[in-house]
Specification:
There is one protein chain. The protein has helices at about 10-20, 20-45, 50-55, 60-65, 75-85. The protein is an all-alpha fold. It has a single domain, classed as lambda repressor-like DNA-binding domains (434 Repressor (Amino-terminal Domain), Orthogonal Bundle). Helix 3 (about 50-55) packs across helix 4 (about 60-65).
Length: about 90
């Protein structure tokens, strides 16, 4: 006889909350969405990673980390990247 899965039928939010990782998962998801939007805007403008790195006075490797949402990417870094692409990063409490 197999054991019943205690999470069967629960929502993803409930599961993440029970595991104590809900806020971390939300943060990761939001960061990935913003990174994807930055990559889409770069593509739309025909801007290379090297060109954005030069504008941000950083390395191409750092741009790769930003666009892959890897490491500890700050809101300030995302705001700078967005501004250099002519966009604005908005955060709000809801």
């Amino acid at each position: 006889m197999t054991e019943k899965n205690p999470h069967w039928g629960t929502t993803l939010d409930a599961f993440l909350s029970e595991e104590g990782i809900r806020e971390a998962a939300k943060t990761e998801a939001v960061t990935r969405v913003v990174a994807w939007q930055l990559a889409q805007e770069m593509e739309r403008q025909g801007m290379t990673k090297a060109a954005l790195a030069e504008r941000m006075h950083t390395s191409r490797a750092q741009i790769d980390r930003i666009l892959k949402a890897k490491g500890n990417i700050t809101i300030e870094t995302l705001q700078r990247a967005a501004a250099l692409l002519g966009r604005e990063l908005r955060l709000e409490l809801v």
